Amino acid sequence: MIMKRLLWLILIGSAAVQAQLPKDPTRPPPAQTNSPVAAGQDVQDSNAGMPAVTAIFIGPERRYAIVGGKALYQGEQFRDMEVLEIRAGSVLFRHNDNDIEVALRQDKTLKKGKANGF
Q: What average pLDDT does the structure give for the chain?
C-alpha cells in the first residue's frame, strides 16, 4: 500500500514538473527586455556621456531624430545641447559654443516621400 502511494506521488510530481507553460515565441529574449530602451531609461553612449542617436527620419518637409529615446527637431534642446542640424547619418549639436557631431547608431535612416504624409 505504501509503495502504491509513493508511486502515485512520483507520477503526479513528475507530471507537475513537465506541465510548465511553453515559452511565448513572440516575446523578445530576456537580454532585450533588460535594455535601457525597454526600461524607458535614457540611452547614452559610454563616450563621455554623449547622447545616443538611435534613429533619424528625413522627409521632404521636416527631419527629426530620436535622441536618448526622445524625438527632437532642429533648434530643440537636449539636456544642455541645442540640435543644430539633423543629417542623414548624424546629428550636429552645439554645447558651450562647440559643435559636436554624434553619429547614428547602426545607420538606420528612413527617407519617405510626400505620398506617405511625412
A: 75
